[in-house]
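Dear U.,

For the methods section draft, I wanted the exact inputs and outputs in one place so we can describe them consistently. I've listed the two proteins in the order they'll appear in the manuscript figures. Please don't edit the token lines directly; just add comments below if something needs changing.

First protein:
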Amino acid sequence: MSTPKSLIIVTWNIDYHEHYVTQRLNAALEYLQKDVFECLKDSDSPGPCCILLQEVQTRALREIRSNEWIRRHFIMTPIDNTKWPHSFENGNITLIEKSILIHDAYILKYGMTDMARSAIIVDIRMLSRLGSQRRIRIINTQLEGNLDGGEFRRQQLMECAKLLKRTKSQQNLAPAQSGGIIAGDMNALDADADEVVRSFGLVDAVVPLKDESEGHTWGYQGGMHCRKARLDKILNYTPDGKKRVRVSDVRRIGIGLRWNGHWISDHFGLIGTVGVLA
């Protein structure tokens, strides 16, 4: 085990709706291994990183578990669908590179959802630039996807934000955190989506772009005929008065990626670098 000063974070909705679920999933894993992390051999380590996947089909879980590169270098949570709400047909999977110390991991099942949505919470240890050990919380989620699900999305994001702000003084809650990350498919379909993020004290890791389309992650590769949008986000939170967690160099991945003529996903993924300043 080691305590990294920085790590790579990837979030990607890999689309459970389309056909060829296992083939597309395997193609996505190969792309992550060889193109994103430049690990040409299964023995090549990606270094400290977290891969957050959404919409993983139940029958695709075996493909992740049996992938040799994943088996060698990652801890997977959960390992099957029994932890998903109602053992649902698809859900979130978090992969933590094995050199990273994991304090805790569990699943939050949203109380307000019509789509069996949930979040995976993993607490890891990182080292700040000043040499202090920090407990950082990584939350992988997919918020409600219905066009009229704005209130559900707001409530779900609020529950995640609360998990980043819990303190020792609150009963029956996890210990105080040094901050953390919420990443995944936020289904940011609402006109006030950015304002909702700010209202919970969260910071969008993508800086304002001159061309908003540069941040779009959905609407280009199949899927329903809706407007192009930045549905996927990496959000971070640092306790008041602190400047600890920072996400930098965020960019899109998986653009134009196909398997045998089929889109691997209707979403682009996101990749960024997480660091702890103090």
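Second protein (the one for the lower panel):
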Amino acid sequence: MTVTDNVERHRFLYEVDGGTAQLVYRVEGDTLVLVHTEVPDEFGGRGIGGKLVAAAVERARRTGETIRPECPYARAWLAKHPDEVEGITVDLSGLAD
């Protein structure tokens, strides 16, 4: 299974066992704003949310975008994986912990 970037709908998608997990985002200039991560309960604990955030990181690395994680899950994942975001600008200004 792979994550796809549905640019038209502004979301990363991961389809598994007939269900879909997603990371909704918006683009503001050169910033990729991570808005909401949604993984169906029955697929929890499989690392799918992390795969979605990792796909956003890879996009930012490829495009030079800054990441702004408004989504609490994405923010926590980025904090736990500093090696994954090395060389990428992460904008945490004004965001709650």
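Candidate sentences for the figure legend, describing the second protein: The beta strands are 4-6, 11-16, 19-28, 31-38, 66-69. The mean pLDDT is 93.

Thanks,
Y.
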